[in-house]
Amino acid sequence: MYYQRKTWGSWVDAVTYSKCLHLVVVLLLVRGVRAAEIFVPDERLKSDILVVVAHPDDETLVSSYLARESFDQHKHIAVVYCTRGDSGANSTGREHARALGLVREMEGRRALSLLGITKVWFLDGRDTSSQNVLVSLASWPAASVVEQTVRILRLTRPEIVLTWLPASVAGENHGDHQAAGVIATEAFDLAGDPAAFAWQLAAPIRQYENALEGLRPWQAKKLYYFSDAFDTGFFRGHGPEYSGEQISPERHRAYLALATAAAAPYLTQSPDPTLNRRIDAGEDLDSITAKLQQAGYFPEPVRLWLGKSLVSGAVTADVWDGIDAAPIPFTPPQRSPPEVARNLEFSLGGPWGFYQQFWRAHELGSLRFRRAEIAVRPGDTLTIPVVIRNPQARGANLTVSASLPERWRQKSESLSVKVPEDGEMTVAVPVIAPTEQSQDFAEIRITAASGGDRLFQGSVFVLVNPFVAEQLKW
């Protein structure tokens, strides 16, 4: 009897075990299907254009173009703000600093929603008042913002990246703008690299993962720049132009009028705090747009600079020329190694020296020939850094001087320096701008000489204008 009971129990155990095993297999199969689905990118996030800017309201410079792409071309657009604009002015209330940043974030989301744009991200940069891109990159911090931008590029998988021009040009009033262009360029070149920020690409190993992200590398196809330079005429021939005066077939309004409506939520930054109420009251958008353009808003036309294209197509053709839906492989920039110097080597320092290295490293050949340029306030002091490298086995005695146009001043005629053997030093040359505004560029020539022999001469072209940021004093 005992034997029979044991046999019966064993048979029941075997059946139960078999059923349990079958259930486990089914669950594993279902879980496997679910896991496979998870690794299909989320199509809700797929974007055609990724705009990378510094502050809420920066996009207004190209918002008439974005209205065209969103409403009539039915393109999906995502926007990244590298900062929340937390050191800006406030035209409507007492909120400043981080509190203002929260207000401007709200304004940015509202403004973009009026252009049909709902994919919006704010990163960890701090709004930094300076014309010096290096100061902004140091303050953000840049490494974290690059990593975050690469993540969003891989998340949204855009065909085109649109950002600020990474260059110092007269009228570009904010180092943060330039820093956003630097960050976007670096992210463009990194997002397709499977070795860059590899934890973003690693498959999750837990159900509730908080480290490995499961993204895929993504190589965008084109990189375009824009600028708020006083005169963007130098953009001609380097990319397409888009008129905001054309009428939207979908909205039956000029693109500039649509841009004006989308700018209305930016009350803290508006030159006219009544703008929102006037639009709500039915005032004609075209007349409001004209007044805003007189105040410097909405440059016409929108000019773009083709920084990079990894597909065939004409430089000045429409941005979508040569682009199709098929992904392209990772295409790193071709970086030529720098020459090894054997004699004294001179270069402009600061942002101008940085950009020469940056353009070379990121294969931005069309920008490498841009002259060193900036705008300063009347009477302001501009400090021009000159970097001297001495690879020789003996020190070098040099004289550094500036040749100035009429009405410019300098604190000393020349500077005598000694660069140690196998050493490097930066010589600061301060010059003082005239107290009157000028419509023409002044050329400041910097010369380095030794024993009467001129070894180096470089130029910085400066425009004197009151509507720019104050220069940092050394």
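Above is the first protein from milestone M3; the second protein from the same milestone is given next.
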Amino acid sequence: MEELRLDITKLEAAASKLRAIAHPMRIAIIELLNTGNKLNVTQIYKKLNIEQASASHHLNILKNKGVLLSKREGKKIYYFLKSQTLKEIIDCINRCDDA
């Protein structure tokens, strides 16, 4: 039987990303961006009915952990998902709820 080799660095990076998304508000932000939308912080906090500071805090965490990317357009910064794989993970979690 072949020995399983684990890359601890990759496992730690994956766990870090999972911890970053493991918050109801951050999951809600991911859901908003799930359709390929690029949204700025104002659009996000208004859609989620939260304070601007709270939205900025959660966006910063998601961006720092490599879940989101951002692009400046004029005075506004637009956020979007770094990978569609995250969308698939969220979809999978949502399907587990139905079971």
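Note on the second protein: The radius of gyration is 15 Å.
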